[in-house]
Amino acid sequence: MAKANNIKLFSFDTPQMRAFHLTWVAFFVCFFAWFACAPLMPVIKGEFHLSISQIADINIAAVAITILVRLLVGPLCDRFGPRKTYTGLLAIGAIPVLGVAMAQSYESFLLFRLGIGAVGASFVITQYHTSVMFGPRVVGTANAAAAGWGNSGGGVAQATMPLLMGAVIMLGVSETMGWRVALLVPGVLMLVMAVVYWKFTQDCPEGNYAALRAAGTPFEASGKGGMASFIEACRNYRAWLLFVTYGACFGIELFIHNVAAVYYVDHFKLSLKEAGMAAGSFGLLALFSRALGGWLSDKAASKGSLNSRVNLLFILMVGEGLGLLWFSQTASVALAIVAMLAFGMCTHMACGATYALVPFVNRKALGGVAGIVGAGGNVGAVLAGFLMKGTGDVRQTLFILGGAVLAASVCAIGVRFGAAPAETPAPAAA
Hints:
Order of helices and strands: HHHHHHHHHHHHHHHHHH
Shape: globular
Low-confidence stretches: 425-430
Mean pLDDT: 89
Largest sheet: none
Number of helices: 18
Helix content: over 70%
């Protein structure tokens, strides 16, 4: 069976469409779990008497471990297949998600928050699975749509976790118990999704990797995988340029998810629910804007060349940087939300445009490339966290990050390919 060259959105009959839908749902659940703590941080901050430095450490922990896990899961997908890799991540990742509800101190909360960061690697598996299921004509749209819809789990968590906590409190429990009970929900959802993913997906159009290798049947990602895939990807300079660009778009996205609620409460004096809704609107942009970035990338390539995808990414990153500078200087909550939505659109679209390029870097080391680029997003978030810890002020941090994004946009231009046709994945770079 060949890769799909179209997306039949309401179909579940083919392995390609089952993988498309289940991978974005799994990604949604993982991102919901990853960011479930963020909108409740004003409450948790009060309970554990956290300082701004400790909150920064928690935010860094939430994204730091993901760097390592993203580097690992890409090659693991090449070796064992996305089905086994995703199922394992969902099942193992549920442990710290459930554990954070049991935290009794800053130290234990920090430890579980570090563990939860591993579920952020779900993104790499999602992009890998859609990349091996869909052909060049639609792979950018498939990657961006699956990632965008899954990514919206972070926005839904921002908007719904305060409401869920409020509903639990209305049943008669204390606020201290309320946030803990609310945080059990995403952990249970992850365990359920692990079973569903294992039962209803397969690794690639031809079947599962283990069975294909045993039968001697060739398939696209038929290399050795593992460390060999990672080493080959490391040799490709385009992977590292996209590592930087993804750090400047997805890294900013992660940073905003983690600080937005606290920022709106501290700087604009919004209530917890109001701040959650405002912060949630940023994440909910992923429902369409990331897919829009991938779709525009596919359209640009079909009318021009592979480098049309590169040009689009550069333009979106410039827009993101300028919008971030505007957001950092707003004095009213209304303007702040408008500015956040403006730069948020460019941020999400840049994420989609970045991963619309990933399948064309090196087909035989797709997992390695996807892992390196994905890890770049978390490196960007970690650096942003250290920057906030150093400045001690979110607004100043946002301003500096705006300038950093503009500087990083130059790397997008450096990704330019040779005379490769738009609909054909480029060969590995020398």
